[in-house]
Design goal:
This protein is an all-beta fold. The chain is built from no helices and 21 strands. Helix content is about 0%, strand content about 55%. Strand 3 and strand 4 form a beta hairpin. The radius of gyration is 17 Å and the shape is globular.
Length: about 210
């Protein structure tokens, strides 16, 4: 990654350089990418979780959650012990999943460890859009934006000026709106995972104990 920092409103990261935190149940690691809090209470949080063993997710009352598989064969999430019988499966190339933080989910790995992109938003205060973007440019208009290059490489441009490139496993956090800031694919196998946070009481949309 070769990025020139030109504004305090955005910053870049690489997952390998983010300090991991172990889960309390020993089932994996979490890396916090970006977060916002109000009096020590999470308003929103974006993190990456490495799940190495089957086990439970943490419970977060009052939080809406969304997750998307970054790498690995897949993982199934099941709250079969509850009335709602929530079942989700995250797999390579699949859609994101959303679920309430109150759900007592059990994660079961398909075939080996997985890595998940996790978003938590406090219900009534924030909401998110989470999507994977394949071989397409993204206009980072507005903020906050948090994007990770999943595969390939992306060019970072501001008002047509090349700032550098982001490789797979690296990304950008846009804290303050930066007009004309773009991510453009370099090649035909480039993909992004993008989260945009917005204030509001609507539920999250899709275009973190366990991971938390």
């Amino acid at each position: 990654m070769n990025i020139r920092q030109i504004d305090a409103g955005w910053r870049t990261f690489c997952l390998d350089a983010v300090t991991p935190e172990p889960w309390r149940n020993g089932g994996g690691l979490t890396r916090t990418i970006a977060t916002s809090a109000d009096h020590d209470a999470i308003v929103w949080r974006v993190s990456v979780a490495d799940i190495t063993h089957d086990g439970p997710f943490s419970v977060f009352p009052g939080i809406d959650r969304a997750a998307l598989l970054i790498s690995g064969q897949g993982v199934s999430l099941d709250d079969a012990g509850l009335q709602n019988r929530l079942k989700k499966r995250l797999q390579a190339g699949g859609e994101a999943a959303q679920f309430p933080g109150e759900a007592m989910l059990q994660a079961t790995l398909d075939d080996g460890p997985v890595r998940l992109w996790n978003v938590m938003t406090r219900r009534g205060q924030a909401r998110c859009t989470l999507q994977r973007i394949d071989n397409a440019a993204v206009e980072l208009d507005g903020a906050p934006w948090i994007c990770l290059v999943q595969t390939g490489r992306y060019h970072l441009r501001l008002a047509g000026t090349e700032l550098g490139q982001l490789d797979a496993g690296c990304g950008i956090i846009v804290d303050i709106a930066a007009p004309h800031l773009q991510l453009l694919p370099a090649g035909s196998e480039a993909s992004l995972i993008c989260t945009r946070i917005a204030p509001g009481s609507s539920s999250s949309s899709l275009q973190d104990g366990g991971p938390g």
